[in-house]
Amino acid sequence: MQLMSVVPSDVQRGSHVTVVAACAVLAAWSATAMVASLLARSIGTRVEPSLRLVAALALSGVGVLGWDGGCARWERLPGLVVAGVGTGIGNAALGALAVTAVPPDGSALGSGATNAARYLGAGGGVALSLALLATGPTAGAGWRHAVVASATLCGLGAAAVGLCTARGADAPGRARGDRIGGPFRA
Asked: Considering the entire predicted model, what is its pTM?
């Protein structure tokens, strides 16, 4: 989802608008992510965090695909809103998974590992997005490459979490919300 970092500059360049107008487009994603993250609490224990993460990654991937259009300011709005819902739900789920995927006395380790993975993913994601934007004979072709790669990675992430969840569901002694097997399990 680090393609998000280049949305304002791409909109500004493609639509010939001010930086503020281009950033207003990104604010739709940011605001939706914040609201979805706050509302994710209402899902509570009805849906396990790992399943929420699968849904969040799937929503983010679908939302990203909605950006593969022109560079007009508001053409990307529906995709940004869908991706924002996915981002908000995903952030809430990751926090829950960070502390339930480790023994009770290792919650700091789980939280630290989650944050390290987020920062590594963010750095790599921005680099990959920028590299893909530079491909293709036109700016639009590079944008499509970046969109497809981002959506594909979201889909692969959802599948990986889903497979780990299914594998962990069969393990004896796992509590609800504690279904993803991981390297920090004692």
From this structure: 0.82
